Amino acid sequence: MNLLQQLEAEQMASLRAKALPDFRPGDTLKVNVKVVDVTFDEKTKQNKTRERIQAFEGVCIARQGAGLNEAFTVRKLSYGEGVERVFPIYSPLVDSVVVVRKGKVRRAKLYYLRGRTGKSARITERTENAGPEAT
């Protein structure tokens, strides 16, 4: 392992205190994002910052990058309009990720969902089969 990879591994360990769950494209995720609201108070002439957590729930359509640069794209429909957000995995703004539903897909990038709505955009649920010894 060269020096750059060593430094990157140290940074990844320090940035992510809580481990993210294993997820892949096709899974429905609930990403809790920290949102910082900055308002200017006329009375005291100061900026006030408020931090809150906002949930973004949608289908993971892609994972890209590796190491510190790894990111994932989540797509949802909001009032009939498709909204996509790219979240870096090691971002301090990503509070937590919850896997709501596991999807069964045959592609790594689900960009074809952009052109689909309704029944054609459905993704079947993936069930972890335990094997013959479980019967």
Shape, principal axes of CA atoms = globular
Mean pLDDT: 88
Q: Report the biggest beta sheet as strand number plus sense, adding barrel if it closes.
A: 5 strands, antiparallel
* SSE arrangement, N to C: HEEEEE
Describe the protein in words.
With 135 residues, the protein is mainly beta. It has a domain at 29-102. Helix content is 10%, strand content 42%. It contains one helix and five strands, in the order αβββββ. A five-stranded antiparallel β-sheet has the order 4-3-2-1-5, with no helix packed on it. The longest helix has 13 residues, at 3-15. It is globular. The relative contact order is 0.22.
Keywords summarizing the entry:
mainly beta, 10% helix, 42% strand, five-stranded antiparallel β-sheet, 135 residues
Sum this structure up briefly.
By secondary structure, the protein is mainly beta.
List the helices and strands and how they pair.
Blueprint: H1 3-15, E1 28-41, E2 46-64, E3 71-78, E4 81-88, E5 94-101
Antiparallel strand pairs: 1-2, 1-5, 2-3, 3-4
